[in-house]
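Q: Structure tokens for this one, please.
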Amino acid sequence: MNILYDDVANAVKWISSFGGLEQGGTTRLLYTPEWLAAQNALKDRMTQIGMESDFDEIGNLYGRFKGSKYPDEVIMSGSHVDTVVNGGKLDGQLGIIAALLAMQYLHQHYGQPLRTLELISMAEEEGSRFPYVFWGSKNVFAIADHRDVNEIEDSDGIKFVDAMKACGFNFKTQPARTDIKAFLEIHIEQGGVLEKEQKSIGVVTSIVGQRRYNIRLIGEANHAGTTPMGYRKDAVYAFSQICYQSINKAIKVGDPLVLTFGHVEPKPNVVNVVPGEVLFTMDCRHTNKAELVAFTEEIEADMIRIAHQLDLEIEINRWMDEDPIPMDTKLIHLLEEICDQEGLSYRVMHSGAGHDSQIFAPRVPTAMLFVPSIKGISHNIAEDTKTEDLVEGIKALTYALYKLAYQE
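A: Here is the predicted structure, written as tokens:
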């Protein structure tokens, strides 16, 4: 299979130019002029290679080669077109470009598929402009609640609804898609495992479950010079014990559990006052729901115990509780067989980050492929993958789409 190195490199460069930054990388947020330009350019390119193309009501873009025998059985691939602020050139949009190149190659070499090949460029996944995630994929299945976005705004005070309508889109009234027989998403790993193990492809078995928290420790602010150590209600000291004990427990549990205290805000946060309050976040992930729940419940109990021992109050708000999402077993085996048969270097692995595939997987057979991230960097203008690894990943995707769309 001849997926050309230059074609891949040029396609990545082309899509990255929409919202491209002088220092490198891309900022392309939902319902901005850059976002709309990228979607319209993709639509034009789909038309140029012979695809039927159209938008749905909220701005998801579709391109398709109709099936000759089973036109109502859709084999879909793609990803999200939006980026984070000062993001890279691959997160999300690689899945779109890869599907475009794979489907173009198949149509050129094998003609019309038996089942419909459909590319999707989803409107949004990141939640970078507005506080809402998976707007694109949730609308594919009509599970996005309009009430969740009616009043939300971006950092400039622009309402979600106003931005959507300014781009020519509106709320979806069409029913959920029921014709999708398989969904494949290729994505950068956003971690360093594949690079360290010198593998070009990751076959994803599941997407981790996540529990996220906002936590508030309430002690007593007091003078740093005149308050003896034994009389203090030091919220930072309590946080430090929570952080130290929790991370040590996570290290002992080991992979695939991960635990992160990502945001810490002490108050009053000045040099000569004992901190009377700390606001902090906690993010815990695991591929097994029962183990995720057991570990986080133990940590919650530890936090309450530490706060009470130090005579502090504690407020624990668990605002995210997402179950792990397994990929389809048959599709996983198909991807493994393809990699074995074609001599592609791969490993089986889970995803530690969320993806559109987690919205698809409970509803249609779904699988993911990863390609390496150089130094594990993502959500950063330095985000990159060797072009030869991109080519290998697109080869694997192309073989899979051929077997699903062209074979009985």
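A few notes: The radius of gyration is 24 Å. The longest strand covers residues 70-80.
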